[in-house]
Write a structure and sequence with these properties.
The complex is a heterodimer of chains A (257) and B (315). Chain A is built from 10 helices and 10 strands. By secondary structure, chain A is α/β, with parallel strands linked by helices. In chain A, helix 3 packs parallel to helix 6. Chain B has a single domain, classed as Orthogonal Bundle (ABC transporter involved in vitamin B12 uptake, BtuC). Chain B is built from 12 helices and 2 strands. A two-stranded antiparallel ribbon of chain B has the order 1-2. In chain B, helix 2 packs parallel to helix 4. The C terminus of chain B is likely disordered. Classes of the chains: A alpha/beta (257), B mainly alpha (315). At the A-B interface, helix 2, helix 3 and helix 4 of A face helix 6 and helix 7 of B.
């Protein structure tokens, strides 16, 4: 097993001729937290969408767990252990927190729907096991108090945490977080950063996240990849990246001398 | 007073048949947010298949089983050929696809099995039955019982199983559902198969009433007022809506009928007023509770509510 859990190799993606991602390559090492940063429209979200198969890339390949892919679909990505959250919360608003988290286990279901409808032993055992796992996730993310609340009634910050829980319960080996701290105040951000760090450390999950708050990124991540106009302009440790003139130019703009 | 209750109960029983038709729509709307224009042709196709088999001398139970299998295969084909290529397209695209689908199914049904009127005998006589002092139709009672059984099975399927949860998840956010590993194709297969089977039951009951022919596919028009009352997403709403429409229709026919019911209808159309129930308590209660602008079910775009005159919210 190689050191890198995920290798992005020369990936290109375009929408009707507009290049969103241009021959992008980078590696994500097993067990690290990798942050994708870059200005708006740099292709960060597009890249996450490529990684879990929402978008199909035009060229290049993705190597995940030593398997080579030229095309990924969302269901296949979920089956192989890629979990994700979305930039705008994509929770099921009319369901409770517990039910939302349980949906994360849909593909782990083994009992048939007839067994479930009739409440046969296997289905009951399975449901019990699922409930225990969900309970574990709720405790891990300190969501027990909101267990039966409809997700639509929760604050934005808590919704983000529920979404994290829904992705986590399936036990992903790679977790893609699209702006997990967007729209939060400093305190909530810190809390979320702590949860992400806990997930990474306690569960050994590799995390790829998009974040704009440099303070959070520099403190949380082991590895930073900087994108600008669909190209990679920086790749390295947070300190390396901060010192990279190209990155500074991308963020602050350059004055032609 | 007995006469009033007879009329009311007769209407309620007939209403369950409306509910049956409406439930087919609700199922598919819940799973894909699409008004399935092809529900009527599926109903026709199911009834026609059953009648054709039965006419060939296939025994009742076997014909029923075979028709169920045909409807399941049909659902698998629809999912594979029509829906799967359209994943992540807009709702209106899917709606248009169901429109095309309805023509294909109607054409297939009549091309393969003929377009003449076929009599369908379910072996249930439409004879009056006395319940206490009330005279009710035996056929209506059995139809209502069939509806109750069907709804119970559906409730079990969608409330007790994870399929129900997956279904709600898919309806809520397709992309998110896919990303957590819900198999959208499987869900659609199941839902369309179930809608086909519901169509079969409704088609048989309505077919026994009015003969199996093309006009059977228009029975779905009866479902529209039911859906408007009960909402597109609630099986319970479809049942209540069906009962209200059935009762209202029967009562109106008996009590307002002499005053030219059809003239009233025409007048309402002329004035641009809703033809069917002028007051819709369920809808209005839901409406007030949510305080959101009404949504037209066909186009998922908020629009100004032109129905409930009193409680019309601003945009």
């Amino acid at each position: 097993m190689s050191q890198a859990i995920l290798q992005v190799r020369d990936i290109s993606l375009s929408f009707k001729g507009v290049k969103a991602i241009n021959a992008l390559s980078f590696d994500v090492a097993r067990g690290e937290i990798c942050a994708l940063i870059g200005p708006n429209g740099a292709g960060k979200s597009s890249l996450l969408n490529v990684l879990n198969g929402v978008y199909h890339f035009d060229a290049g390949e993705i190597v995940f767990e030593d398997q080579h892919f030229h095309r990924i679909d969302p269901l296949g990505a979920a089956r192989r252990g890629i979990g994700r959250t979305f930039q705008n919360n994509a929770l099921f608003k009319k369901m409770s927190v517990l039910d939302n988290i349980l949906t994360g286990l849909s593909r782990h279901m083994r009992s048939s729907f007839i067994e479930q409808a009739l409440g046969l032993p296997r289905a009951r055992r399975e449901a019990e096991g699922f409930r225990l796992r969900a309970q574990g996730i709720l405790e891990f993310l300190e969501l027990q108090a909101h267990r039966d609340v409809l997700v639509g009634n929760l604050s934005y910050g808590l919704q983000k945490r529920v979404e994290l829980g829904r992705a986590l319960i399936a036990g992903p080996s790679l977790l893609l977080l699209d702006e997990p701290m967007a729209g939060m105040n400093a305190e909530e951000k810190q809390e979320m950063a702590r949860f992400v760090a806990d997930v990474n450390r306690d569960l050994g999950t590799t995390v790829v996240l998009i974040e704009h708050d440099m303070g959070v990124v520099m403190g949380l991540s082991d590895h930073v990849v900087v994108l600008d106009y669909g190209r990679k302009v920086g790749d390295g440790t947070p300190a390396d990246v901060q010192a990279n003139p190209e990155v500074i130019a991308a963020y602050l703009g350059v004055v032609d001398a | 007073m007995t006469f009033f209750f007879e009329t009311l109960l007769g209407g309620l029983l007939a209403g369950t048949m409306y509910s049956l038709v409406a439930i087919g729509f609700v199922l598919i709307y819940k799973a894909s947010g699409v008004f399935n224009f092809a529900q009527g042709s599926m109903l026709l196709f199911a009834a026609l298949t059953f009648v054709s088999l039965h006419d060939q001398g296939v025994p009742f139970a076997l014909a029923l089983l075979l028709t169920v299998i045909v409807m399941i295969i049909g659902a698998l084909l629809i999912e594979r050929l029509v829906l799967r290529p359209l994943v992540n397209r807009s709702q209106i695209t899917l709606f248009m696809a169901t429109l095309g689908l309805s023509f294909i199914i109607e054409g297939l049904a009549q091309g393969l099995m003929g377009s003449q009127v076929r009599a369908l005998d379910l072996g249930i006589d439409d004879v009056p039955l006395f319940v206490g002092p009330l005279m009710l139709s035996q056929f209506d009672l059995i139809a209502a019982a069939a509806a109750v059984v069907l709804v119970t099975v559906l409730a079990l399927l969608f409330n007790k199983t994870r399929i129900g949860v997956s279904l709600r998840a898919v309806a809520d956010d397709t992309t998110a559902a896919l990303s957590i590993g819900i198999n959208l194709n499987r869900i659609w297969q199941i839902v369309w198969a179930v809608a086909g089977i519901v169509g079969l039951v409704a088609g048989l009951l309505w077919g026994a009433r009015q003969g199996v022919q093309f006009s059977l596919s228009l029975v779905v028009l009866k479902a529209l007022p039911v859906l408007i009352i009960g909402g597109f997403t609630s099986i319970g709403g479809a049942i209540v809506g069906g009962l209200i429409v059935g009762a209202a229709e029967n009562l109106a026919e008996v009590y307002i009928g002499p005053l030219r019911y059809h003239a009233v209808v025409r007048l309402r159309i002329g004035l641009g007023l809703p033809v069917y129930p002028s007051r819709r308590p369920v809808w209005r209660a839901r409406h007030r509770a949510s305080l959101k602008p009404c949504r037209s079910p066909l186009f998922k775009k908020p629009r100004r509510c032109c129905w409930s005159s009193g409680a019309s919210p601003g945009p």
